[in-house]
Design a protein that fits this description.
This protein is α+β, with helices and mostly antiparallel strands and 108 residues long. The protein is 30% helix and 20% strand.
């Protein structure tokens, strides 16, 4: 598989009631909070993945998404700035030895 075709790595998707999105055609969608890998987030930022459908793009910032037609070149940067909520680390921040000790204590 060509490197650019790698799918997005999505760890989780959950409802986010802090915003609602109104489409130009009148449809309204509830917001979601998506947790993705650092690599996927960077590919979104660079326009190598479509922000709307997560389709991999052969080149950075094409005019339109090759799958859904979203205007990547004209709209993705604003989308990213509007919706990106920051980096959140997932998992333990302890060393392996400290984590094993914590787990032993938790089992008692």
């Amino acid at each position: 598989m060509e490197r650019w075709r790698r799918p997005a790595t999505v760890y989780g998707v959950e409802e986010d009631s802090s915003f609602v999105e109104d489409e130009a055609d009148g449809r309204t969608f509830g917001g979601v909070r998506m947790t993705v890998s650092a690599e996927t987030m960077e590919r979104l930022r660079l326009g190598r993945l479509c922000a709307k459908c997560l389709e991999p793009q052969q080149e950075a910032m094409p005019v339109r998404c090759s799958l859904c037609g979203f205007g990547i070149r004209s709209q993705q940067r604003a989308w990213f700035e509007h919706y990106f909520r920051g980096i959140e680390l997932i998992g333990s921040r302890l060393s392996l030895d400290d984590e094993l000790e914590r787990l032993k204590e938790e089992m008692l």
